[in-house]
Amino acid sequence: MTAEMLLKRLFIPRISLREAEEIGPILFSVQAGDAHYSIPQIDDLPIEEYEAVEVAIIQGNSFFKPSELGIEGFDDLWEDFDPPIAPFVPPEDVTALRQKLKEKFDE
Question: What's the CA gap between 80 and 94, in Å, rounded?
Fold first, then answer.
């Protein structure tokens, strides 16, 4: 392995992605690890071991804040990122938002 290859392996973060949950037409993405806004920022732990995770709501090729889909009370978790995501979301808020999405979009 060349020095350049070794440097690339050491300094380019590995992104570990979890499967997004389909809720009707929505993808509810909950991510955690060293390349995400989570606590701790460690890859491959069971999701229950994170104190906070990164959340995104996706429909088609677009990301949404909850209020843009008619769900109120969660936009304060979102930052003004492009695309909009919610960093460092506590588990109880993930559970509550998932429930609201299911109530609205699961048939």
Answer: 19
